[in-house]
Amino acid sequence: MGGSRISTTDVETNVGYRFSEVSLLEAALTHSSAVPPGAVRAGEQLEFLGDAVLDLAIADLLLERFPRKNEGTLSKTRSRLVCTAFLAEKGRQLGLGEALALGRGEDRSGGRDKDSILAAAYEAVLGAIYRDAGFFRTRAIVRRHFKADLGASDVLETHDWKTRFQERTQKQWRELPEYRHVDEEGPPHARTFRVEVWVAGARFAAGEGGSKREAEQNAAESALAQADEIADEMADEAADEAADEGTLD
Prior knowledge:
Shape: globular
Distance between the termini: 59 Å
Number of strands: 3
Mean pLDDT: 88
Helix content: 55-70%
Radius of gyration: 21 Å
Number of helices: 12
Order of helices and strands: HHHHHHHHHHHEEEH
Strand content: 5-15%
Largest sheet: 3 strands, antiparallel
Structural class: mainly alpha
């Protein structure tokens, strides 16, 4: 089994909270791959709880800042703030990957930096704080972690990455992107979907998310970021093929 590389005390410092019951934090940082078969997966239970607490805390904080905004705008903003990629980055900032107890196989396969595992760990830690101190203390922690995000001038802006990428592919290649659902994992209450986006027979990028739609959006965002580089590679391959055909003639 791959043990943690930093202590729970370090995690408490990074998170900004000292636990009365440290066993809750230890459970939150224990991935299901490190739990013996048949044993209760306390970390997944805390993740389930933390997911709900985080949704409520972000909703409450958004209403506090934007009391005149409609439900649709606030709902889309909350969804963006609690998506897998966003929460995984919070987990990285707090060093949760280095603190996880993982099964040997998961550890060797790079589990400490997987978005799905880091996002789940972040939610589990929030669930642990809720069990240790209640909602208002957890809300205060969430406010601190999301202070810059909630204070950003463009926090209410939403990005339809799929539409933007489709516009790019139609203009440049006259092709529509194809989204292939390649994998899903995790318990029923916290599924993680993995999607690849392909254009003109070339794989552009992959994305993960708590729903197929979120995974597709994340894949499209990654594809846009890499579009120029991949376009150059495709052009080079086309030029090489043309040169080979000319040689054969």
